[in-house]
Amino acid sequence: MDSEPDAVLLGLLRAGDEQAFVTLVRRHHAAMLRLACAYVPSVAVAEEVVQDTWVGVLRGIASFEGRSSVRTWLFRILINRARTAGVREARSVAVGDVEPAVDAARFDSTAHWAAPPEHWTQLADDRLHAAKVADRIRSAIEELPQRQRQVVTLRDVDGMTSEEVCAVLDISEANQRVLLHRGRSRVRQVLETEFGRA
Amino acid sequence: MLPKLRLRHRDIVCQQAVELMTDYIEGVLPRATRRRFEAHLAGCPHCTEYLEQMRTTIGLAGTITPEDVPAQLLDEFIAIYRDWSADQDGEPG
């Protein structure tokens, strides 16, 4: 059952298949929890939000018409619940804020690199350091401002397409890309600061 | 402040190039801009390395492994399902 697409599992679930429900829960739990954590102050609250989401999914299952993917539908329900439970929303940063990908001080007066990127990518391939790098990227993403964190998590960690992310978060393609760019740029910078060598 | 991204008449410089990285990776740069961007990369090892670092960053994010649902939590989910299922059976039709 693990390899069945979501839509098939949803059909089975409608027909009363408990294992289909368990498979869906296990498949989406980590991503749902990560997304919920971007809205609420603690993992415990995020877990409640995820549970609450599944209650909502079961109640609404008859009305799901398949216009969006199951995952998009699921995550939209999650965000609605998380917003109700969340307190962080007000802290979100406006998309329009200008924040360069790289500190302006690292460029000279002609906008060429004065302090070029330090090398670190080979560390990620090195078994000795790979775990450390993986650990740091996880925390770097957690430290991003909320909107950037949501987009980077959904796109780069959970592997959603930009269309899916826009549908889930209800943002435009252009905003999605700006947030993705800021978020990825910040995470890259963290890795460079931590592991870079000139 | 960022230098204005006016790319029509001039070559792309590094500080502009780093701001175009995501659009380039996403494949949404207009063709003419993409050509200028690639021309810049061809002559700039630092920006080429920066692009590689962005790609590595994305790749690393994708390797964060999802943790399985803890058994106790899974039991709670199953309880949610069984409550719902019992309600369904109790309803006529």
Q: Can I get a quick summary?
A:
The complex is a heterodimer of chains A (198) and B (93). With 198 residues, chain A is an all-alpha fold.
Question: What percent of the residues of chain B sit in helical stretches (DSSP H or I)?
Answer: 55-70%
Distance between the termini of chain A: 50 Å
* CATH class placement of the largest domain in chain A: Mainly Alpha
Summed up, the helix count of chain A is 9
Question: Would you count the extended β strands of chain B for me?
Answer: 0
Largest sheet of chain A: none
Radius of gyration of chain A: 19 Å
Q: Which descriptors apply to this entry?
A:
heterodimer, A: 198 residues, mainly alpha, Rna Polymerase Sigma Factor, Chain: A, Arc Repressor Mutant, subunit A, 2 domains, 64% helix, B: 93 residues, 4 helices
Describe what this molecule looks like in 3D.
The complex is a heterodimer of chains A (about 200) and B (about 90). Chain A folds into 2 domains: about 80 residues, RNA polymerase sigma factor, region 2, helix turn helix motif (Rna Polymerase Sigma Factor, Chain: A), CATH 1.10.1740.10; about 100 residues, Winged helix-like DNA-binding domain superfamily/Winged helix DNA-binding domain (Arc Repressor Mutant, subunit A, Orthogonal Bundle), CATH 1.10.10.10. In chain A, α4 packs parallel to α8. Chain A has about 200 residues and is mostly helical. Chain B is an all-alpha fold and about 90 residues long. In chain B, α1 crosses α2, α1 packs parallel to α3 and α2 crosses α3. Helix content of chain B is about 70%, strand content about 0%. At the A-B interface, α2, α3, α6, α7 and α9 of A face α1, α3 and α4 of B.
Walk me through the topology.
The complex is a heterodimer of chains A (198) and B (93).
Chain A: H1 6-14, H2 18-37, H3 43-60, H4 70-85, H5 121-125, H6 127-142, H7 146-157, H8 162-169, H9 173-195
Helix pairs in contact in A: 1-2, 2-3, 2-4, 3-4, 4-8, 6-9, 7-9
Chain B: H1 14-26, H2 31-43, H3 45-61, H4 71-90
Helix pairs in contact in B: 1-2, 1-3, 2-3
